[in-house]
Amino acid sequence: MPVSRLPLAGLALLCCLLPGACSPTGAAVGAAATGGLAASSEKGFAAAVDDAAIRAGLNDRFFKKNLELFADVNFAVEEGRVLLTGDVPTPADEVEAVRLAWQPEGVKEVIDELRVRDDSSLIDAARDRWIATELKADLVFDREVSAVNYSIEVVNGVVYLLGVARTQQELDTIERYVKQIAYVQGFVSYVHVLEPAK
């Protein structure tokens, strides 16, 4: 009997409203609850659960080790691959973040796209959020793109894309959207294509 996604979605919403939902434990429960949505993606339910477990492990390790690093580092997880983005204070913090990212069981690859912080980071943060929001909206409203298959991170105007594309054409469509967004400085794709162009 298929698992209903409605109770899982309700659990995720409930976790957001409860005290402590932003704690590593709350994040772990929320990540597990979102497995229902991820199950509809190309990677399937088992991979979605594995990725949720990795994300929970990352939250736990970063939170316990270094609260500043926990706040500075963003991570996307797809098929056991962890993409690190964000700005960190020092090169030593970057090394520590990569070390922590390898620790959860099931991690197959760590992609380090962290940058050491500069004076423009705070100014660029709002613009980066705007770019990410714009791209996510483009993907959600395009019926030819399965938006649930992608994780998007934007750092200093560079768009990092991680996930699974059904076809090369779908990935090309996303790249066209990226190029049309103002203030984008670059595009880096770590997308696995299920059906490459012939």
Automatic annotation (TrEMBL):
It comes from Tistlia consotensis USBA 355. This is Osmotically-inducible protein OsmY, contains BON domain. Residues 50-118, 127-195 form the BON domain. It holds the Pfam family BON. Residues 1-27 form the signal peptide. Keywords: Signal. InterPro entries: BON_dom (IPR007055), Lipoprotein_DolP (IPR051686), Transpt-assoc_nodulatn_dom_bac (IPR014004). Coiled coil: none annotated. PANTHER family: BON DOMAIN-CONTAINING PROTEIN (PTHR34606).
